[in-house]
């Protein structure tokens, strides 16, 4: 007898300042391609990634690519609605984008909570590490402390250009948002998935 087929849908936000590489990360993960021709996202864009989590479970990741300037507008509350987790991205070669991370996190926390009233899980992505590896080399402990102080579940280095932090790494990041195993995550009364437990970045 065939095992029951289970499907889960997660809406995940990808946010951060203009030009940090949010769209490139999503395109690399979903479509396995990269373009050096930069075009700013206007408003919001969407992508869907289907994961065959195990033989009985399919996970659909609905990735919302939100324009960097949207934090200053009035639409983020609408865009954030019903999301179950988020990635905040900064560019390791542009310190100002890291300084803006806390502002993005505060904006997110002020506008979005899980159905149980708790904050959503958020992972910090240090993008363009192929260009600024030395920036993070001696700052791992500082990054860990920053994540602890600001309520991130962890952080990862990524490079959409070199596919560093590619599909396997993104899956690892996603697992940070969905520990325990997905079949232990329960549905709440209004149909949203509730993240029960968080896991910090591995040392």
UniProtKB/TrEMBL annotation:
Give the protein's biological function: The small GTPases Rab are key regulators in vesicle trafficking.
* GO CC terms: late endosome; lysosome; organelle membrane; phagocytic vesicle; trans-Golgi network
What family is this?
Answer: Belongs to the small GTPase superfamily. Rab family.
Q: Name the Gene Ontology molecular function terms of this record.
A: GTP binding; GTPase activity
Lineage, highest ranks first: Eukaryota, Metazoa, Chordata, Craniata, Vertebrata
Q: Which NCBIfam families has this protein been placed in?
A: small_GTP
GO biological process terms on file: endosome to lysosome transport; mitochondrion organization; phagosome-lysosome fusion; protein localization to membrane
Cellular localization per UniProt: Endomembrane system; Membrane
UniProt keyword annotation of Lyase present: no
This protein is called Ras-related protein Rab
Q: Which UniProt keywords apply?
A: GTP-binding, Lipoprotein, Membrane, Nucleotide-binding, Prenylation
Q: Which Pfam families match?
A: Ras
Bilayer topology reads: Lipid-anchor
Write down the InterPro entries for this protein, in alphabetical order: P-loop_NTPase (IPR027417), Rab29/Rab38/Rab32 (IPR030697), Small_GTP-bd (IPR005225), Small_GTPase (IPR001806)
> Organism source for this protein?
Macaca fascicularis
């Amino acid at each position: 007898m065939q095992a029951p087929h289970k499907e889960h849908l997660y809406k995940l936000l990808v946010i951060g300042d203009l030009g940090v590489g949010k769209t490139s990360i999503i395109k690399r993960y979903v479509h396995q391609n990269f373009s050096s021709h930069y075009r700013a996202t206007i408003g919001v864009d969407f992508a869907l990634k289907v994961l065959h989590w195990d033989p009985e479970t399919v996970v659909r990741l609905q990735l919302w690519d939100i324009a960097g300037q949207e934090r200053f507008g009035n639409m983020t509350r609408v865009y954030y609605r019903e999301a179950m987790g988020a990635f905040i991205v900064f560019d390791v070669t542009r310190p100002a984008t890291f300084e803006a991370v806390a502002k993005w996190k505060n904006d997110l926390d002020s506008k979005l909570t899980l159905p149980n009233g708790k904050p959503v899980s958020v992972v910090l992505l240090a993008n363009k590490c192929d260009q600024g590896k030395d920036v993070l080399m001696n700052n791992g402990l500082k990054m860990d402390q920053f994540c602890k102080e600001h309520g991130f579940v962890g952080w990862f280095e990524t490079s959409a250009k070199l596919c560093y932090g590619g599909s396997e790494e993104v899956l690892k990041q996603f697992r940070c948002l969905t520990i325990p195993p997905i079949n232990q995550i329960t549905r709440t009364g209004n149909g949203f998935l509730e993240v029960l437990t968080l896991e910090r970045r591995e040392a």
